[in-house]
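Input:
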Amino acid sequence: MLTQYILIPVFVLVARTFVLLYARRRGAPDARRDGQLVDPFDVLFYVLVAHLIATRHANMIMVVLAFAYAVLRIVQAGFDLRGSARAWSGPAGEAARVVLLIIWIWFAAQIFAGI
Amino acid sequence: MSNQLSNQAVLLPLIVQVALTFAIGFRMAAGRVAAVRSRKVHPRDVALREPNWPKPLLQLQNSFLNQMELPVLFYLLTILALFTKTGDLWFVVPAWIFVALRLAHAYVHLTSNYMPHRGMLFIAGAIVLCVMWIIFAVRILAGL
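Output:
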């Protein structure tokens, strides 16, 4: 099981949260755009990772998809903080959510259908 | 390096934080019911989360919602510490400091609501939590 590897995207997203918190406290106007410090979809991601570890389903496909989710969320945050590139923020966020949905479906399929 | 403590010892700070959240949540719910029954607030004025509750209830609401932000990362870290068997004193001592700061933060939030004090306690909690995550990440990544 790839427990350590599946945790790296979690570390990245948690670090992102603390960076956003710092940016908010510094008064960066674009960091205030999103009212929530911890994105609800990130919570779904954290719950998923915890379940992947608990059920020993953290395989290479899951790790790759988890990295893809984290990278897209970082790209989204980068666009959010740079007002000029905000048009790209939406698509990056949508892509991240699609990836998260795929991971959840894949996880559910493994659990319930034994794939 | 790791002297794994019992599950109870690792989970106790989390239980206290959860209890704090429920206490604020129930107090908020009771206050809301009382406000509606005494006709201080009409349900249609708050149905879409408009900030039309009396000020003390808004304080409770803000404090309750605040418990759903940084503490979520604390819950996650506690679960991961259990799964990865890294719940030792390096985890539990900062965990108690974090929860104590959250209790103090909630107390200020629900009493004087003096922002400089509230902000200081929030940031202190955030720094402790950040350090906890860094310690955890270093231990996990060192095992790669």
